């Protein structure tokens, strides 16, 4: 990459990644809170009790899926920009496009593939989001429990 495209090629896809990460992380936490409230309402648990492993995993998975639904077009654009430069290897998969940036990529997708083009590869991405975000929130809650225990023990 350095020889053929220069040092900036190592940062391909950085702009959509940065534009995507903040709303994705914020949405994950917001939806996690929402799904925890719904869980507590449906199963009549007290909101003050620390969530169990099943609850935090399920609510985390649901929050990951919901957040991914909103930011997926940016994820797709990021990936399309990042794979540029591998045209020879990708010929067998269909037409190869060159994009100059986030806006150019989005407009090309909309013009050539329509609005649904922004959601190609969506289902595997949802599965990944459910698994990873579910496990993130499981470990998040378990870590909070350990920290609360250590805080009580130390004080």
- What is the helix tally? 6
- Indicate the percent of residues in helices: over 70%
The whole-number mean of residue pLDDT values reads 88
Q: Order of helices and strands, N to C?
A: HHHHHH
Give the overall silhouette: elongated
Give the percentage of residues in beta strands.
under 5%
Number of domains: 2
Organism: Araneus ventricosus
Subcellular location: Membrane
InterPro entries: MCP, MCP_dom_sf, MCP_transmembrane
Membrane topology: Multi-pass membrane protein
Helices and strands in order, then pairings?
Elements: H1 2-5, H2 14-43, H3 53-82, H4 87-90, H5 102-113, H6 122-154
Helix pairs in contact: 2-3, 3-6
Give a written overview of the molecule.
The chain is an all-alpha fold. It has 2 domains: 1-43 and 54-120, no CATH class; 121-154. The chain is built from 6 helices and no strands. Helix 2 (14-43) runs antiparallel to helix 3 (53-82) and helix 3 (53-82) packs across helix 6 (122-154). It is elongated and about 60 Å long. The N and C termini lie far apart (54 Å). The model has no long low-confidence stretch (mean pLDDT 88). It comes from Araneus ventricosus (Orbweaver spider). It is a multi-pass membrane protein. Keywords: Membrane, Repeat, Transmembrane, Transport. Belongs to the mitochondrial carrier (TC 2.A.29) family. This is Mitochondrial thiamine pyrophosphate carrier.
